[in-house]
Amino acid sequence: MEHISFPPLTRFAICGGTHGNEMTGIHVVRQMEKNKVVEVEDVSVMTVLSNPDAIKVCRRYMETDLNRCFTSALLSAPLNASSPHEMKRAHELNALLGPKGSPDAVDLLCDLHNTTSNMGLCFILFNYDWIALHICKYVQSKSSYGTIAVIQLVVPDSESFSLETVGKHGFSLEVGPQPTGVVRADIYNMVMETLDLIIEWLQKFNSGCTFEGGEMEAFNWTKTIDYPRDPTTHEITAAIHPHLQDNDFKLLHPGDPIFQSFTGETIKHEGEAAYPFFVNECAYYEKKIAFHLAQKVSISIPSISMQKENA
Amino acid sequence: MEHISFPPLTRFAICGGTHGNEMTGIHVVRQMEKNKVVEVEDVSVMTVLSNPDAIKVCRRYMETDLNRCFTSALLSAPLNASSPHEMKRAHELNALLGPKGSPDAVDLLCDLHNTTSNMGLCFILFNYDWIALHICKYVQSKSSYGTIAVIQLVVPDSESFSLETVGKHGFSLEVGPQPTGVVRADIYNMVMETLDLIIEWLQKFNSGCTFEGGEMEAFNWTKTIDYPRDPTTHEITAAIHPHLQDNDFKLLHPGDPIFQSFTGETIKHEGEAAYPFFVNECAYYEKKIAFHLAQKVSISIPSISMQKENA
């Protein structure tokens, strides 16, 4: 694959508290604001607490999931008095960090999340964003925290829904397991180290380094599996099976146990072999998601560097 | 210590959802209700979902923590229109399962809880309740789940505040780590097995078995440690230190790390050696509790059996 050059990446936004009960990002952003981290050699760092009202009451959201409000259609629809709190906040964040798809958008947006799933530290991004993928590769090679997965959602651009899609480039940094409402020091340290590595990469990029291309591994989302539910009450009738629990990113074969019903029966995986992730994420019960499935893919990424002025 | 005899223990109440986001008890109670578990050889089993409104929205409580509403003073104070939702519910539960301290109260009350702390399965009880302690001992000897701690709160009876104190005898079954809003099959299985063992013990007791006394180990609560906080905003400025995180019930010595501040400094334990528990429980941030401390004690429990009629 050929070489691609990009304009400088000088405006970096770090967001926390997009979900008001995912504590790592909230404390990281507050600490960076206390430290007055605003300009680090050619990179201006902007920190944002995305949903202050939800943070105040330590809930994921007030009226609707903020991190599903950033499609182009939702951002261009007019607001009115009865628009949900989060839709109003999405418009504010789009004005502050975007507008999405415009030249005014921040160059890179990193949104900090936690999950109750045993996913370790991972990146979630959309649609072959070469800048984002190069940053993932760099962090993977430098991090002291072992395997770091990259999850890619390949969808029409108009359907990309999350806050990081407001930036020209972006990703979510998703770290778990951590219960909602809890901050763990080990996870806080992991995120702080990762942010340092991202800033280091941006500085290298802006100083003219070329980053070599090559093959890299990612998990491309394929489908979603819901819990077995009572047809009348819609309450779940089974929990994630102990064999699947905590085994995110371990290949699931047809016939492997996936649920244990509350009466003790085992329910098995019936589809093709696939990699599970977001296994038993607490916020996904209401979204009817017990876990996601992905295929492992190899992505050929181009070498990249900064566009020379007037080039 | 001499022998003590007690009246038969025929009325057993199992409560779940006292905290509406602690999912094991909610699913256990729902499943027992589906199975129509109501009478098992001389023991009538009553199941209760304690806080249905909080369960519906998957929150700990609506207005105030239900599990702090059961002191004699609060239960005897008149309700009015502005009484918190949970205070009203406490009066209803006291009428259903108590009244506390009266001959009409259920014989045994087991309240099912989860914690985000790494406490495994443990019992929490008040003030040398011999029946409760004998049941703990029985479960410890029969359970397939390894070490089971017993935590005792020794306080004036008038200050005992939690739902299980409405029964003539009682305890909380506290199991973790499990994030709020999540049900884990392994923890569900653990609680189901424990309830079977408790019912088995009650049947043996009611059929006239004598249970030998002896020494048993418990953790007597001594004090509470809060997070370091910003004096102005009262926000926490540190997280539980990685050396303490997940190490509930492991002896903490003076000088051992207990917190890591968000700027990276280590804060050490300054008091006497003690056993920490409820380390990083999510619901305790607002209560200003980072962890509890206990002393390990040996309790001499008497042998017990059922009172013969007219004895």
> Hey, roughly how much beta strand do the residues of chain A contain?
25-35%
| Overall pLDDT of chain A | 96
- Radius of gyration of CA atoms of chain A, rounded to a whole number: 20 Å
CATH architectural group of chain A: 3-Layer(aba) Sandwich
Low-confidence stretches of chain A: none
What is the count of distinct domains of chain A?
1
CATH class of chain A: Alpha Beta
Cα end-to-end separation of chain A: 20 Å
Biggest interface pair, residues each? A-B, 33 and 33 residues
Biggest sheet: strand arrangement of chain A: 3-4-2-5-8-6-7-9-14-13
The biggest sheet of chain A amounts to:
10 strands, mixed
Structural class of chain A: alpha/beta
Helix content of chain A: 10-25%
Our count of helices of chain A gives 6
> In sequence order, what are the helices and strands of chain A, one letter per element?
EEHEEHHHEEHEEHEEEEEEE
Task: Walk me through this protein's architecture.
The structure is a homodimer of 311-residue chains. In chain A, helix 1 packs across helix 6 and helix 5 packs across helix 6 (185-206). By secondary structure, chain A is α/β, with parallel strands linked by helices. Chain A has helices at 23-34, 52-56, 72-76, 85-97, 130-142, 185-206; strands at residues 3-6, 11-16, 39-40, 43-49, 108-114, 120-126, 149-153, 169-176, 214-225, 238-240, 257-261, 266-268, 275-277, 291-301, 303-306. Chain A has a single domain, classed as 3-Layer(aba) Sandwich (Aminopeptidase), CATH 3.40.630. At the A-B interface, helix 1 and helix 6 of A face helix 1 and helix 6 of B.
